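Why does residue order matter? Because the sequence determines the fold. Keep that principle in mind as you read this record.
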Amino acid sequence: MLFGESGPLGGAAWTAPTVRSGWLQGLRSLAQHPGALRFLADCGAVDTIFSLQGDSSLFVASAAGQLLVHILALAMRGPAEGHPSPQGCDWPACAQKIVCHVEDSLRSTATLQVTQALNVLTTTFGHCHSPWTQGLWVRLSPLVACLLEKDPIPASHSLVDLLLSVARSPVGSSDCGLWETLAQTLSHLSPTQAGPLALGILKLQDCPQALKTQAFGVLLQPLACVLKAAAQAPGPPGFPEGATGDSITVDTFLSSKSACVGLLCQALAHLELLQLLVGVALAHVHPGSGTCGHTDSPSPPSPSAPRPGPRRPCFGLQWQYCASAMAQQPPPVTWGATCVRSWQAVSGSSERPWISWGRCLRGRVLKKAFQATLRWLLGSPKAPSCCDLDPHTQLFLGELLPVLRKRLCSPCWEARDSGLEFLTQVTRHWGGQAAFRHALLASEVPELTGQLLRDPESYVRASAVTATGQLSSWGLYATPTGPEHPEVQQESLFTELLHILSTDSEGFPRRAVMHVFTQWLKDGHADVAEDLEQFVARVLQAASQDLDWEVRAQGLELALVFLEQLLGQPGSRCPYAVALPEAAPPATLAQVLQALCRVQLFEFALRALFDCDRPVAQKSCDLLLFLKAKATPCGGPQEAGASPDVVSVEAALQRWQAGEQGQPLGELEPEAVMAVLRSMDLEGLRGMLAKSSDHMEKSPQSLLQDMLATVGVLGENEADCY
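Structure:
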């Protein structure tokens, strides 16, 4: 039996998804041959494909839908290709059968069948751009529109995908009622469902302005609901009133936390697009009049008319005018300042909406709000003759920093963490701006950041380490002193971070400390310049004892920066490069080697050479090869032969290679170190490490160290791990 109820093979083999998938692939190849389409229609193959659309295997179901589209496109080639008749009376029988099946599925009360039909049509309009697709849409669009009358609307996600696929196809440029269907769909879908459709409409090239205005309003609605809710609650003076949306809309939106968070994150993720559109639109708004700023001036009030008292402009009406004015012209270069000034004119406040969201939201929304604020701030232009921030941005900072201070004190650790990340980023960009420095130092934010170094959550501690490191680099951090902080009264930030590196039980804060120390070394931080060698020695000593391989690897990165600075080549050629750097003069090299021995960099690097974690060993090998290449061409210090130092180093290397720890080597002589380096086949070791992709990372010793790093180093835990 070729086709039937038990499948084309007529046996138990049909129950295997791989068999059904293989049959579909074979049928796709068969459809290419002349005369095959009639065979497929007459022998029931298409009916079997219809049934496979609902297959339990998603792969088989998807392949069945794609095959239907492929057969439909093949059937419409030739004579029917130039006749896009909606009735389809002159369409081939195979195409008629497929389209009738799609029509029946769209009329079905089963959501699964509706979804299958919509997915087939989405693929069709996405891949087939012949004239007959216009007739197909004219024929099926009434059935698609009827879906909007059902409650709830079935397969809303698939419906959105279909409409956007049609709009992007050549059908979108024809007058076939598509834009009206899109407008109806926007008004019928819920905010959660309509968001992706609105965003897709705004990205269309040839779209009516009225439809773009409607789509813009859909994207703004979640933001307007939060503004409405915040305006009804006690808030700061001058907060915008009358935000768009009635109380029913606001209550519905805020009733579901997951939907509220999802929609706000979506709106904030696309804030850059909204900013560009709003920036253009608000530039045309005539503040306070409720009209757009055209060339014709509004008529002056009658002398006999009563003079209106001061009132706030209708915020929702202004947004409607803004939406209708968007996309009229390219965005100006100074759109950031335009938006700031226009917001102040419209709302009577310098606040931007995401500051208000930061007051009442947590988690993902707050993180997105901080990211949006940062994009806004960094987009604020500077006056051509001024190196400081513009007045509008300074005013904005004055209102932003109290909100940030509140977030750093939040009981929600995600809020504290997001606030610290934002502080780090904005300080990195504006740490040298006088206005920012003045506002930040007056806000108590640096003091709160220092307190979060002892936060109970490791993620927050790590972010606090990064933030304090960035603040200190710009001279914006002072170690808390006074009776409220007796435990750190006499300690510098370096000492406190070194304490975290040595004692913190979690890896994230320790990794953050190493990154901060490396950056301090690169930047010539004051705590580093005070005693460079002592700084490097203490950091390398702590990093060498860490069970986290990333901490040890970052220690090698710091060692490389120190070596480059000693050689007078900061940021020199990467050790991975094919051409090695030029050799240093012998006199300079001797001084460098002595300094490296004093900070015990050689012992740290040589131990790491046999690290059970491959990235650490690889980084150490590159560091030693870099140094070897600097010393070899010019001879460097004379070899020490079989001196006691050389013997002790070679013996230690053998023990480390065998996995033993052994005693520290202490301060070595440069000649002994170079003799050992010259005797080692570092090039061969690097080749071996490059080929070994996982044997060291997955070794029992590496796994044991990972477990110890996770559970701590208490004796009882250590015994359990062994």
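The longest strand covers residues 285-286.
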